[in-house]
Amino acid sequence: MTRSVQAFAYARPSALGSSGAGRSLGLETSGGVTPVGAEAHPRFFSGFLTSPLAAARGLLAVADVAAARYYQRRPGSLDPVVTGNGDRLRFESFSGCNGVYARLDVLREGLDGADTGHGTTNVDVNNPLREALSRLTGDDPLHLRVGPDELAVTTLGGSVVEKKVPLPDRWLRGFAEAQVACSGFDLRAELPAAEAVRFLRSLPRGAGARAPMWVVPAGRTLRPTTRPVPGAVCLAGPDRLAALQRVLRHATALRVYGPAAARSAAAAGGARGAASAWEVLLPGMRLTLTLSPDPSRGFSGEGRVLEALATRDAEADAELVSVLLAWEPRIDPGDLAVRAGLPVERVRAALTRLGTAGRVGYDVAEAAYFHRELPYDADRAERHNPRLVAARELAASGAVELSGDLATVASGERRYQVREADGAPTCTCRWWTDHRGGRGPCKHALAVRMARRGAKVTGGTR
């Protein structure tokens, strides 16, 4: 696995302290991007939280996921990402195994007393801060500051708190894959607070919590089912919802999102599970955990972004669309299509490509994309995607022979048959036999798509 080192530099550690009006939570920021460009320590918010204890628990839940590894358990080490979208703050993290994506949206009604800035950065959530937040009780006023205060600004030239952590490329790809998965979800169930707490606390624990299970709406609750019947949602590894326990006492409802059961079962292609999203509604906030189809599968390996990355126009379209983004909390592909003069399908492909650099996310609650900026390179994500690299090499080397709906791809000492049916490719290779499209196209199908579309295929390197 290719890894780089991500360096976080903070002016001082984040801390929970006291102020004249109650408690004060100062979250320190690392290098980030704002509408005026890169900043060493951007400032996004300074004001009070309307539900301080729920917000503290929600932030801890996001930090829990960032520090967790649910498969081959080893601790993670990445600080959460925060984005200011003008009317809200979004805190995001991925688990170390890349299989759980967490996001806390603190909405306008959850923020009191100040405007929210625009931009994206990492925030320091250190162990002493986590311990202090865990001990927080009552609903005394809590002042939140995201970014340096005036005192810190005057001392930024001094010593800083540095964290250097290994950053696997698959973690970067996970942002894009989670976005693509979520964009295909619909609301499947909504449970009131009491039923939500009962259901989540009834989930299996220990070894029995690692196997995928399916649940189906039944009145005001969810009941288990042995197969993906219509309306069912896959809960792949129930123990991966453990971070939600932090906020249950503040929950007002639980919403469950997933693809149509028939579609998710077909897409699984013999795999045991499907992705899903679990959203706890809090006063003025939403905490969402998105789970990969299986605890042993991180989002980075799902391959749903590969079709968009393999198109001829994706790179140029992404550059055009990126200029039109303005830190919107809701991005409308139809509106972008009109402004960019592109078909909606090409705008969606461009958004997918931008997602590989962490520049676009997807909010299932609002069924809309949102703008963020992470300091990652989309080209780098492409270069280190094995299937995409291999497909480019096959197409560039002339290994693809086209004959109507049928194509032959010479790979090594073998020749594989790729056939198009209703826009979906099938292949005679082992990858397609094992996954049947459930984890994106194989390298042979990708190479055929590139050849058919005349995509740029040079420049692929191992």
From TrEMBL:
InterPro entries: Znf_SWIM. One of its GO terms (molecular function) is zinc ion binding. It comes from the Bacteria. Residues 416-453 form the SWIM-type domain. Keywords: Metal-binding, Zinc, Zinc-finger. It holds the Pfam family SWIM. This is SWIM-type domain-containing protein. It comes from Streptomyces thermolilacinus SPC6.
